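Submission sheet (multi-component)
Chains listed below:
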Amino acid sequence: MAMQFYASPEQIMRDRSELARKGIARGRSAVVLSYAGGVLFVAENLSSALHKVGEIYDRIGFAAVGRYNEFENLRRAGVRMADLNGLSYDRRDVTGRALANAFAQTLGAIFTEQSKPFEVEICVAQVGATAAEDELYRLTYDGSVNDEPGRMAMGGQTEAIAGVLKSNHRPDMSLGDAVKVAVQALGSVGGEGGAARTIAADQLEVAILDRGRAGRTFRRVTGAALAALLDDSEAAAASAEASTEAADSTEAAERPDS
Amino acid sequence: MAAAFDPSGRLPDLFTNAGTSSFSAFLSQAAPELLPGRRPLPPGMATDLTPHATTIIAIAAAGGVVLAGDRRATMGNLIAQRDIEKVFPADAYSLVGMAGAAGIGIELIRLFRVELEHYEKIEGAMLSLDGKANRLAAMVRGNLGAAMQGLAVVPLFAGFDLAATDPAKAGRIFSFDVTGGPYEEVGYDAVGSGSLFAKSALKKRFRYGLSVDDAVRLAVEALYDAADDDTATGGPDLTRRIYPVVMSATAEGTHRLTEAETAAIAESVVAGRMENPGG
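Outcome: structure written.
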């Protein structure tokens, strides 16, 4: 007869946490921070098709690290919930807090009920009228939710990354400076012998929630606009700002009323 | 939200399963009462229950398309609203307008806009222009029961086709009937009570390869002709400063002409008709 071993609830929870933490730490990290013009998402991502950063609603964005199928599942659920509430009430009635709550409940239920927790860490960000009104929510695998003060790092070795962010980030930064701080923070870990490393533009996924735009504010920063933002010299940074503004205006024209 | 009570508080499986990328397909399970076609109507004709929205015109131009609509809604012989808006951007590159039962039409367009945005967010890519037209056809078809009881809605859909190889043919127009569609139209089309007169005017004046500005002017002229002969279509209201809604979709995206721009065009059209009432 098979013997059923007793495992205490504490032990089960510890094991699940350890599994989730290990899974999350294996992947590449992501940072989210407020800057003068909005909220910036920067994730290290080798794929240009499987996104870690996505749009949820007009002023709400999503970033995640960990297992793609698990956080993609939550992102879809978030889009469905946001669109359903926006249609039933009004577009202004869709909030980041409500989404963070729904994700937290879902992650918490999966953590306690399923044999394997979701190996994901998620950020729900909502851009406000000023940097002080931006909301960043950190959601972890066990369903706990934290309101972060204008910047956050997710993934493995986050303490080191968050340390760099904390010492260099200011909420009134320009987009160019904010991207450089984010990339510097992500590159501060994982190099040979603990040294900093450079991350190429094609390994970064960058997106913003544009504070100044009406309607859908989410926009990806790719290609030449991103390369220009990452360029170190001052002149290049200035032209990058100009070119993102140009990119802004094309995209603004694409979706003026939607 | 029609989600069943779940003590854990997690999002229902309906939200999290891989399922469909279509918002209306999701709604049909999550909240079917929000779909216009899913509400049972009591028997009998319901024609007089809602205002009737009137004329919409679409004109294909070189490198884009123009969609314009008058501002009147009627109930029988009365004007129900003088400044109703019946032309909307469907998404970044397409436009939609509607004629028929105003309440259902506005709701249908609202749902259609969410449908396109939802697909774009879920899939990370925009639907093709034909895909958008097919979705709209399915949504119009869903309203057939109500249409047979007098609450018909007929949209007009126009957009800039990003996949078009010839930029001159990128502006495309799709019409529908209450049983669905879509029917692709060449050059121009109109729906609503004044459409007969608008199309007659366009038949004589439309030329292939019009600039977008010329197409805008032509649309306002055709709306004037519709209002001239159809009591349910409103002409430019110079005293109250209510002018047609005119939008364009080009490679740069959708654009709504400002009040000042439409005012200038409408005033010049009216001034022209002072000289020659037939245009």
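Remark: Confidence is low (pLDDT under 50) at residues 245-258 of chain A.
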